[in-house]
Amino acid sequence: MPLIHRSPDTGVWLLTTPRTSYALWIDDSGAPCHLAWGPRLTTTEADALAVPAGDPPSSFEGRPPVGEELPVDGGTRYGPPSLQVRHPDGTRGFEWRPTGHRVLTDVPGSAELVLEFRDRLRPLRVALHYRVRDDTDVIERWTVLHNTGHEPLELLRADSAAWTLPPLAGYRLSHVTGQWSAETQLRRDPLPFGETVLTSRRGITSHHANPWVMLDGGAAGEDHGPVWSAVLAWSGSWRVTVQRTPDGRAGLTGGAGHDGTCVPLAPGEEFTTPVFAGLYSEGGFGAASRAWHSYVRTHVLPHPAEPAPVLYNSWEATGFDVDEAGQKALAERAARIGVELYVVDDGWFGARRSDRAGLGDWSPAPDRFPAGLGPLAQAVHDLGMRFGVWVEPEMVNPDSDLYRAHPDWVLHVPGRERTELRNQLVLNFARDDVADWAHGWLTRLIAGHGVDFLKWDMNRAFGEAGWPGHRDGNDRLWTRYVANLYGVLDRLRAEHPRLRIETCSGGGGRVDLGILARTDQAWVSDNTDAVDRLVIQHGFSQVYPARVMSAWVTDVPNQLTGHSVPLRFRFHVAMAGLLGIGGDLTRWSEEELVESAELVAAYKKVRHLVQRGRQYRLTEPLGEGPTAVQYLADDASELLLLAYRRSPRHGTPRLPVRLRDLVPGARYRDTVTGTVHHAAVLTGYGLDLDLPSGDWASTALHLVRVPDEVRPADA
Length: 715
Prior knowledge:
InterPro entries: Aldolase_TIM, Alpga-gal_N_sf, Alpha-glycosidase_related, GH, Glyco_hydro_27/36_CS, Glyco_hydro_36, Glyco_hydro_36_C, Glyco_hydro_36_N
Keywords: Glycosidase, Hydrolase
Catalytic activity: Hydrolysis of terminal, non-reducing alpha-D-galactose residues in alpha-D-galactosides, including galactose oligosaccharides, galactomannans and galactolipids
CATH topology of the largest domain: Beta-galactosidase, Chain A, domain 5
CATH class of the largest domain: Mainly Beta
Radius of gyration: 27 Å
Helix content: 10-25%
Distance between the termini: 43 Å
Protein name: Alpha-galactosidase
Enzyme class: hydrolase
Number of strands: 37
Shape: globular
Oligomer: single chain
């Protein structure tokens, strides 16, 4: 069956993925309408869904509030619009008039459907884009809007797509919420009637919500049940509106922007929305997560197959007290325990002695690095490690040479106070001169100082978000800022192919598919406490793979929470993602350094499973029993099991942990103890974890399939 097919009899478009189908058609009014999203359909079965909507149930009803591919503002539509236009005369509305379609198949293994429309009365063209591939059930959707007239328009809302669910007896909404140092807290709640809005008005993706949702009928679990999900690829302000209607339907719409702003569209101008991708899965939340993980690794990340190095970051060891001698001493200890990438954090530049000054003056401090960063980079390279630095290109301290020279470069409103957060202001990246300045000093830094890696931070949300002197600047900056940010990252990567980048925004404030298409990993949270991280990492893994999840081992008591847990436990938690170390190695004992080197070496043996394997959340975090996560090779030839237990309560049942998706009839050998386990026992009856006694116990089990030919004859 082709990936995209149009019925000559009914006009139904059928989009086919490996396990699912998506069907739509253009109704008699000219509007694109949803028909199906779920299990695979034949073309004949999809045609049977093409039934005219009929009259409303009463004279008090208009068009159904869900069911259109991009609900517009106009006519008798009363649900949340995906497209809301204000015309030059102040009127609003849009009426669909189809003008054609295209099916693009120039990329092997994929197909793209473009449905083209215009407004019946006004000079506005709209193109709905759908992309499907033969190796994923994720469907990518976006919209292109083109002002073909001679006067400017305002897009009051320009969402990427709307998604419609089938009628169900009930609906449940899954999403994450949180705050700084407590990001990605998973919530699963019944979907209330009416409209539920998830959003960021901060100019960044935000710590407080993330632009994805999952919906089910209320009975799905980790390993069973149908789940519908959608993820927005955008790194600025965003909005997703989920709606449950009184007539038993549910749908959602989402895109860039937030209430109170618009996208100006000048004559001849075109606006392309970010991708709002959707996925239907029949295997519960776990299967949905694994499908998203595979999609991100295969179709989003720049270098998904490249093993991420073990990283050391200097921040918690030195704070702002950074100099060449101290960094070299730390680098020597980091190399000793097996670190592969050494990163100098904040404090290496300008007059940066605290967070009150220096941001914007991106030259190595001459009193701390007399010859620049080159000698330190060379020392790090000589130790066999790559060299990285922390940067915050989008920020400036008022106490800086840059701000004194260019006070107009920051987001501001004339006559209003310039509100500082963390003693800093936001540079207006929507301005091309600011973006070009950032690209210039960054490329000089990378090329002139042997930099292999950037930790790109962004430590505060927008404030006084104005762009004086630019027509429509106060509205235009929200999308233009992100476009220029993407442009700088794209240029740097093209000019420096060996450069790798970590996205960071005061922790997990900028994690989304848009930024991950231009970076290699994400700093998930400034909270490095291993106990809290179990919950944070659980929520993060709902959509994002372990391949992008940076996780550090830091000192105890933890700087933020005061928790003290064993070094091994801290390592095992960080080994669930991209292992990093952030403690002050000059204070670690000889025994701790030796143990750390052993654990780093153990991680290197299994990181291919963590970074490229299929992830299974076997238990919930911090329950009565152990928290367990499994990483399985694609061919099920080997696996890693990470398990953690907090302080055991006397009398708590000791339950085995059941593994997932092993080869039936196979046997698996523990690479440390040599113990051989039967797959049928591991999956059907479970593994009794031999966790050490006491508080905060953990283990890492690496099991490898025993070749069939060496089995005993009676096996």
